[in-house]
Amino acid sequence: MTFQTSLRAALLGLAAMAAAPAAMADQLADVKAAGKIVTATDMHYAPFDMLTNGTYEGMTKDLFDEVSKEIGAEPVYQDIPWTAELPGLEVKKFDIVIAPVTITPERLERYTFTLPIADATVALVKSANSDMKEPKDIAGKTVGVQQGTAQFRALEAFGKELGGVTIKEYGTTDEAYADLATGRLDAVAGSLPNLTYLVKNRPESFAMFEPANFGPPTYFAWVLRKGDDSASFATAINDALLKMTDDGRVKAIQEKWLGAYTELPREVPTN
Amino acid sequence: MFSIPVFLQAFEPLIWAARYTLLISGLGIALGLVIGTLICAARLSPYAALRGFAAVWVSFLRGVPLLVQLLVFYYTLPVIGIDVPAIVAAVVTVGICASAYISEIWRGAIAALPKGQAEAAAAIGMAPHHIWGRVILPQAVTMSLPALINELILLVKASSLVSVVGILEITRASQAQAATTFRPLEVYIAAACIYLAINLCLSALGRYLEHRTAI
Amino acid sequence: MDFGILQQYGPMLLRGFGNTVLCWALGTIFAMALGLLIALVQRYAARWVRWIIQAYIEIIRGTPFLVQLFVLYYGGPLIGLRLDAVPAGLLGLTIYGSPYFAEIFRSGFRAVPVGQIEAARAIGMAELTIVRRILLPLGLVSALPALVNFSIILTKETVILSIITVPELMYQVQRMSTETFRYLEANLVLALFFWALVETISRLGRRLERRITRHLLTERT
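Structure tokens for the assembled complex are given below, as produced in the milestone run.
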């Protein structure tokens, strides 16, 4: 290839980029036309998103497989670290973030949430040989939690109520669990489904509090961009979720991964 | 306690993920060597504009963390219409980041050569490209080999940052594995073994070249 | 861009940056000292000692800092080694950096012309004096750019300390971005702080470089 032809090719490429349609008016129509839904999730959030021997599986995948079927498009699953998911969504690298994100008022201002896909109420886990029993026993103890999460807020509020809990923040819950195992932490706060799954897998090391949860009920949902173009897409997903709730598919999937069924709100909670 | 079965089971998915580590660090190193050499040449050139450009290049790419470079390349540039596949973004970013470090290694080695050698070569009438090709570069390459191997090994490990654009390489695969088994220690040590295997090859290569080129 | 957020998080970010600089400076000094020691021992010690050192270099250099730090901090207590986050971070940086520095020093020593050392031996200079008067000064000159280069690389490795909850810059930036979703500002903060640190280090390095080469030049003439 001569320099001139390669220069021409480069210029054509640039022109094509500039000419590409800037914004899709309707995301649902766009997704249907493409025949695929590009998703992002953090595939280390058991039991929702897991990579088992290189294969993606978990409760989110089962749910979203069914939702995609209802919409009539193929899901494309991508493993994106949590810190890059929302920025990537904003620049349209993905159509939807299917990592379970706790619905909070601040997040509702910036993003569109789908209907809840699971209970995210904050709960506590302790070391298996700990003599603490109820959540209020954490008064005066050191508790780990993931940085910047809704569970962190709930723990902070609960700590104040109890008159003092030392909170240690971690980048991911995995490090908090590891520090609970070393004994540096007395307990770890997280969402109920995650902690239940942890204890089921490592009963020799970890145990739940009785009762495990505290604080107001919160929910996990999926996240879309804010704005008119995503409205129809959000409605389509919500309709699919409601249909799946009514015909028992949601119940079956929840029981498969969480061991129990929790009825979820039929509207997006706003607080 | 440490679970041997979990440790052993971790290897298969991690070795599978090592393909991406090898691909990205391999191509990134190749790109980094080419660009790094050019930047070093620019840095030593008689033209002030070229020197200035090279100095800014090195300062910026060494100064800004690779993670941020990746995020900008992949997640910010689409705003102005530059949208590339994840794997291209990863290789290009790793390559240009490496070029800054590699050009500094070349520069350091060239600067450490006694000036008299180039002067002597010029005095006996050698052409400039011969002075570089036969006197300066061979010695500079030999001298900087250990530093270069150091840098290449660092690159293999730094390639773990590309997981942020959705590429499942060794570190990311081990984090995923750790999160499903809740046994991070076992899985991370398995990941360390794979990195070690790759890097031992690099450092053996370095030793071999060092022996062959010893002055 | 929202600079109100930077105002709100500014003090926290500055403290984080302070911790980053502190961890980097101490970690680099310790790692460099250990690296120099390793390079010297490797030059003079018996063969089996060299083998052990070589194994140490290959293992530490060949594995990621993330894994080393994780094993040290979360695995250490299994064998009774219980460190707080900051001491564990500094120990981790020291261990992690030492083989790289050792290799850089070794490479610098290689660049010292053998003739100079042979000449010194011939006039009956003690081996320790040779190290002090010839090997170190000459070796350091050629190793300096690589030393600066690797010190700069180490600045970036400090972000990994966030996984063991050292409240350095990355830890604080993550906190800001997860609380406010201001990712662009977060990246900007990371880029600016690190660029400032790296630019300062490389300027100091260049100054030092000019200074010690000038000294050598005057000595030669």
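Chain B touches chain C through 48 residues (CB under 8 Å). Residues 11-43 of chain B form the longest helix (33 residues). Further analysis is deferred to the final report.
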